[in-house]
């Protein structure tokens, strides 16, 4: 009986002493955390995608609380709603940003861009790009091995088996930019989503001269500059033999789309055109 | 007991089909594409324009820094264009395209066949000439030779180690040079020795070339302080760290250079190129290329001008066999497959190998079971399977700690892996990305 009693007393005393020590230590080394961090974190989507440039959603919330203003802070996955929420919590104002979406700037499908060699190494764009220019004559185009798919945490990009090109899922894409960094060929770009998700962009980044570019791929941008001439809003520039449309300046008039001789300029989510301009409407089908 | 390096290494089947085939010249090509970046370091800058007439040996691209090399025309004719052309790197690179017209050499080049044994030239002049005439390491890495000949202040060099092991299977170019140009090589060694003020020259030759060992030993007797050493056959003995360990039993520290242990290593082909540059004033515009393969009709050692499309070399070796699956530029272990047979010969092209389809593809891939064979054959004592996994998940700090930068990409791990895991592909990627991070930290 004594043994049990002694044990109980000893353990109870030990428990009390340790509890006191723990309490003292906890008081002494208390970390005061701004309660707003928790509130701000609750606003974030919690996807930890890293699109904001901070280590996860809590990191972003902390940075927002510490910052003097919310300029330059943006959660691409959550968009303006999340930023408004965080701004409310912190009593600051967040600037509105136009929603963006990832766009794959290569339209070299299997039938347009012919294979010239076989690649049988590991299925990784980064490895393949370190080895050679790719299994077609275009050294700028999509390798189709899916590094962007692996990088996406939102299941928003997939390789289409028929064309061999990645397709962005408009519903899921949050424009976090993970695929942009993962792509060794720098083909994926974040562009303004546009009204009714309508977009026009040059779906090619080939910087070769016209003739070799066209030989390598039927829908290559050959840098002819016809689109620049037809554009009434100065939205298009040709640099390094490749056209680029500034989505801030583009008014979505679609003139360049029908002007492009190779069909390198794509339009997305537009209603079909009238019968006499049938060609460009066809292009939307192969677009992403 | 023959010497070799103690750690790791493999011994693939040698398959030296072209052994003993005399070095032959082929007809001049109609057109050459000379890439202006053929060496490690800063790419050169083209100094000719479209329409310019050039002679053999004329400077066409100038080095743009200390670690860079001049490039000379390998033919005489007219520059048609300076354009981007697919080369052995797998990418389109700037090339000077020259239409060949006759074979008119620069007057400064000594075309006589006699041997010039007069080595009465100062060390500075040797370095200057080597730099001016664009000599780079001909073992395959194409590191500018004049850089290696400039011993940094505070360091001394006791031994010049000449790499004549030719440890890559299939290749016989160095072997054949030794058989035909032994005396020139010795003079070249003497010149390099003078430039780096080394006490002794040690030539390492693997034991699978007994005729070369015998011949070189004979010729070396005529010169002071040159010693030929026979080594056990083991890949990758041609790696400079392995060669120093084999011959001198000295270990180059991790991240260090051979000069840290008082050595400079040069390839035997480079010694010959130094001889030609210094004694004959001949720029490096041609090199010996082994063209070989199991189904090649006439495996040969061809003296090819830089910029010659490799299909002309293949034609000279009896044409492209019907069962061709892959053409490799370089040796079978470290070489790289090319996309097309029109890529030009560069200063680093030691061989053109043609593999039949059945042996050209990668083995089927299974899961790694951590058998550790890759670690046991790694000559640098690394753990390739770990490095591959770290590289795959982008653990760059750990990669650096595990000394990934010591990897010389010899390919022993991939060669030996029973599961066919693409170890080197990922390690190479990890190295490149880590180097990028380190460079960005520096600047």
Word description of this protein:
The complex is a heterodimer of chains A (288) and B (443). Helix content of chain A is 35%, strand content 11%. Chain A contains eleven helices and eight strands. In chain A, the strands form four sheets. In chain A, strands 1-4 form a two-stranded antiparallel ribbon. A two-stranded antiparallel sheet of chain A has the order 2-3. In chain A, a hairpin with a 2-residue loop joins strand 6 and strand 7. In chain A, helix 2 crosses helix 3 and helix 2 runs antiparallel to helix 4. The relative contact order of chain A is 0.11. Chain B is of the alpha/beta class. Chain B contains 14 helices and 17 strands. In chain B, strands 1-14-13-17-15-16 form a six-stranded mixed sheet. A four-stranded antiparallel sheet of chain B has the order 2-8-7-4, with no helix packed on it. In chain B, helix 1 crosses helix 4 and helix 3 packs parallel to helix 5. The interface between A and B is medium-sized, with 14 and 17 residues.
Task: Output the CATH class name of the largest domain in chain B.
Answer: Alpha Beta
Structural Rg of chain B: 21 Å
The main pleated sheet of chain B reads as: 6 strands, mixed
Q: Which structural class matches the secondary elements of chain B?
A: alpha/beta
Count of DSSP strands of chain B: 17
- Unreliable runs of chain A, pLDDT <50, ≥5 residues? 277-288
Mean pLDDT over all positions of chain A: 89
Distance between the termini of chain B: 50 Å
